[in-house]
Recover the amino acids of this structure.
């Protein structure tokens, strides 16, 4: 098993590549040419089994359409509905290549990739269909834009965002045993990541 972070344009989104019995890319960024080239350092993109999107914002998901037919694309049902309603045009006016997800998630699904298992947790707040992915044995959390290191958390002022939902989602995440946090932007936390999530929850309750 190998885990690699790829920081992708246009807004430095963290994408995570897991090479296991099955190969998975969590988020793809907004630049198809960039992500394909970056992937090739580690794996033939055709050997990817899954692309899982933490949410539909263009900095994480706009290159997803280029993976259609290459890997199975999984995203939350509500997030796909939002993307469709927006006509695949982001709030920043960037349009995406249209795609239909191969797997529409609702939360609670468990992906078994070999040594790695990822449980889907629906964590609305930053967007209605945001998800986090939890690896229970390794105590890893891939948190998209729901929670970041050092007590930071996702914005709630985008379409479909909700402060109440975000706080509820952080409450769910704060109950998990998390060693390593792999957020959608900025620094990864390796060791005692639950402390960071607890701090985010505390600060979100103060400010939201
Ligand atoms: Zn976002």
């Amino acid at each position: 098993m190998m885990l690699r972070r790829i920081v992708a344009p246009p807004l430095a989104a963290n994408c995570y590549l897991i090479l296991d019995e099955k190969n998975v890319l969590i988020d793809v960024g907004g630049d198809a040419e960039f992500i394909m080239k970056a992937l090739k350092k580690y794996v033939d993109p055709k050997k990817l089994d899954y692309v899982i999107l933490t949410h539909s914002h263009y900095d994480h998901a706009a290159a997803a359409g280029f993976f259609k037919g290459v890997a199975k694309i999984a995203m939350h049902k509500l997030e796909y509905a939002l993307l469709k309603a927006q006509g695949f045009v982001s709030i920043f006016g960037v349009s995406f290549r249209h795609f239909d997800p191969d797997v529409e998630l609702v939360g609670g699904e468990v992906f078994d990739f070999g040594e790695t298992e990822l449980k889907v947790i629906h964590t609305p707040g930053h967007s209605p269909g945001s998800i986090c992915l939890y690896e229970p044995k390794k105590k890893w959390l891939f948190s998209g834009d729901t929670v970041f290191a050092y007590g930071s958390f996702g914005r709630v002022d985008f379409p479909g965002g909700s402060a109440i939902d975000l706080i509820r989602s952080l409450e769910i995440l704060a109950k998990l045993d998390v060693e390593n946090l792999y957020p959608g932007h900025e620094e990864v936390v390796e060791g005692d990541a639950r402390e960071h999530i607890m701090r985010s929850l505390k600060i979100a309750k103060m400010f939201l």
In short: The chain has one domain: 2-207.
